[in-house]
Amino acid sequence: MESTSRNRFRVSTLSCVCASIIVLVVVSTMIFDGDRGPFNFFTDFSVFKLEPSISVSIVELQAKFSTSVRDHPSTNNANTTAVIVRKERAEEKMERGLAQARALIHKAAASHPNMSLLARDHQGLKESVYHNLAVFYQSYMEMEKRFKVYVYSEGDLPMVHNGPCKDIYASEGRFIEEIEHGAKKFRTSDADRAHVYFMPFSVTMMVKFLYRRATANREPLSRFVADYVTVVSAKYPFWNRTHGADHFMLACHDWGPYVSRANPLLYNSSIRVLCNANTSEGFDPRKDVSLPEIKLYGGVVNPKLLHPPTDNSSRPLLGFFAGGLHGPVRPLLLKHWKGRDAHLRVYEYLPKNLDYYTFMLQSKFCLCPSGYEVASPRIVEAIYAECVPVILSSSYVLPFSDVLRWEAFSVQVNTSEIPRLKEVLMSVPEKKYKKLKEGVKAVRGHFTLNHPAKRFDMFHMILHSVWLRRLNLRSR
What digits encode the pLDDT tens for the residues 29-45? Predict the structure, then answer.
């Protein structure tokens, strides 16, 4: 199966390269306003440049074209000039639109109270859970108005244009499904007018069809991704024009960061949307996006989580966790708390006569330790259960953290504090706990996968995170 799939893709690669038409383009690089350490897009908004910064004029383009014509006299001068000018005008128009979006977002920051009031009244957004509600709301509106995504058509099922829509990697498949078939407002068939370019391969499906557990060889996955980038960079001008900086991949599988290393530009320049958002393993929050991990048994949310208890219902347990000994954090948690306290219930594996989600719904705090990788589906499950998530992880960039104030709806505990975890949780005043719980309710919609997608839901929040990173790029 491995060799068959590989050969099929190689044949596809060869045919695409041979059939491609070489188009004269001027290489302009998209640079990231980074090199300043971690920052928040909304609290450190000065990085956005408000002026269009296309550095190559139409005259320069035509001069470059003229040189090319002398070298290739068979080239159709008038037609090629028209194509180049059209592309340049499209890029100029797009940059002007982005500059306008940046200016309007800055203006929203200046008129913060009025814009926040509008967002609260018309969209039901709760100001306390955002770094800056006015800025987020204006940015989201600009995204809806302007943002266009081009989805590459290259590649075949089942590893491209397809992904898992059930179980632990559902966020990977559901995004691919929505962008391929549902997001008409954002998807464009005109690649020259796209702000970003999506490479719709699924790492989870690659693992299923290319990886062989007996050999533990992940190289076929890397070759597949490297070949895919080779195809789109040979057939289209966009990858080479920006060194991949306006391209993005999305993966919830743990091996997403690994396969992104197949191409240095994919790893270092492109936007990587990853569940495994671990800064100690190369995740860069200035350009990469943290993808929420969500486990959908049978493709749906457990019915018990659809209607959590009312605010005045009793939650008799202080905290709860049940899970295997994966990674460095959980063994520490189980060592200190497994079976130790009736109010802080910690299990390795839950006995069959007990129900996992019932415990969540009965608990004030839900413990969310990292496993082998930093992300955990328990965070989203806790939000659904309106149980305040307790983040026990190191080097994890939390999803949508450039927009959301996680301290407004979760508790983050250093792993060194695990021995005194009960003391830490007991020290949270009741008034603060109620505010945290209100915050959990307020952000639930941002972590909900709808079909079809709805405004401000998880699909749109992921897209907004990509939009932010595209806003923070400039041509020069």
Answer: 333 343 333 334 544 44
CA atoms of 340 and 55, how far apart (whole Å): 65
Q: pTM value?
A: 0.85
- Structure confidence by residue, pLDDT tens digits, 178-220: 999 999 999 999 999 999 999 999 999 999 999 999 999 999 9
Query: Which string of b and e fits 45-79 if b means at least 16 CB within 10 Å?
Result: bebbbeebebebeeeebeeebeeebeeeeeeeeee
Kindly indicate the confidence band of residue 89, based on its pLDDT and cuts at 50, 70 and 90: confident
Res 216: pLDDT:
93
Instruction: Report the distance separating Cα 370 and Cα 417, nearest Å.
Output: 15
- DSSP per-residue letters across 127-186: GGGBS-HHHHHHHHHHHHHH--EEEP--S-TTTBS----SBTTHHHHHHHHHHHHT-TTT
Distance CA 274, CA 251 (A): 5
- Residues forming beta bridges with residue 320, ordered by sequence position: 345, 366
Q: Could you tell me how far CA 470 lies from the centroid of its own chain?
A: 13
**What is the DSSP pairing of strand 363-369 with strand 317-322?**
parallel
Beta bridge mates, 322: 347
DSSP annotation of 246 = T
Q: ∠ CA(405), CA(406), CA(412), 5° rounding?
A: 140
Best CA proximity match to 210, nearest among 202, 252, 228? 202
How many Cβ atoms from other residues are within 10 Å of residue 346's Cβ?
22
Q: What is the mean pLDDT of residues 419-435?
A: 98
Give 103: exposed, middle or buried? Use CB within 10 Å, 0-12, 13-18, 19+. Answer: middle
Q: What secondary structure letter does DSSP report for 46?
A: G
The Cα 467–Cα 72 span in angstroms is 40
Which pair of structure tokens corresponds to residue 313?
A: 């219902």
Encoded tokens for 326:
């994966």
Structure-token pair, residue 389: 């998530």
- Nearest-angstrom CA–CA distance, 219 and 258: 10
| DSSP output for 72-85 | -TTS-HHHHHHHHH
